[in-house]
Amino acid sequence: MRRSLLLLTFVVGGCGRVAELQPAPGHALPVKPAMAKTTPTVEQLLTPPTYARPDRVDELVKRSQPRANDPFDLPPASGGDAPSLPAGTPPSTVPANTTSTPTPGA
Fold it and tell me: How would DSSP label each residue in 5-27?
């Protein structure tokens, strides 16, 4: 029993053997890129650049949290707060365009 368990361990361990990748027989590596100094190696071709795998935050918000203060949430240039309407109040009508447009040919 011990012998078969030991043999099974070596057989399963051999399945994960890692060997250096080589091109298929009769095929070569891709040609050197036009602006590259050397032809990239297999390892360089298999390593994705940083911009190909950006860090992501996939954590979902599990419960409501108040938003942090935004240092760029500034008041309008007039120095006052932006006007706000009470909840449930319909917005006022937008005044007509008070600027006059010149009539063509006049």
Answer: HHHHHHHHHHHT------PPTT-
Q: Residue range 12-41: average pLDDT?
A: 80
Task: Look at residues 39, 43, 18 and name the one whose alpha carbon lies nearest to residue 28.
Answer: 39
Tell me the pTM. 0.31
Q: Are 75 and 81 in contact (CB under 8 A)?
A: yes
Q: Residue 46: CB partners within 8 Å, gap ≥ 6?
A: 21
User: Is the predicted pLDDT of residue 76 greater than 60, yes or no?
Assistant: yes
Q: What is the pLDDT of residue 35?
A: 92
With a CB cutoff of 8 Å and minimum separation 6, the contacts of 23 are 29, 42
